[in-house]
Amino acid sequence: MTLSDYEIIKEEATVKYVSFNLGKSIFYYKGGEFRTDQPWQHQAVYHHGDYELIFCLQGQIFLTLNQQQLVLKPHDLLIVPPYCKMVGNAKSPVGTAFYWLHFLPQERAQITEQTPASIAPMINAVGQSKHQQTIFLPLKFAVANFEEVTVLIHQILASTPPRPYLDDRNLLTAALLIKLFAGTATTESTRADQRRVATVQEWIRAHMSSQLTVEEIADHNNFNPDYLTRMFKRVLGVTTRQYLNRIKIETASSLLIRTGMPIKEVAANSFFSDTRTFLRRFKAMTGLTPTEYRQSNREIHHNNPHIDPQIPLPKQIEDLIDYIPENGNLK
Question: What are the residue boundaries of the HTH araC/xylS-type domain, all occurrences included (predicted)?
Answer without folding.
Answer: 198-296
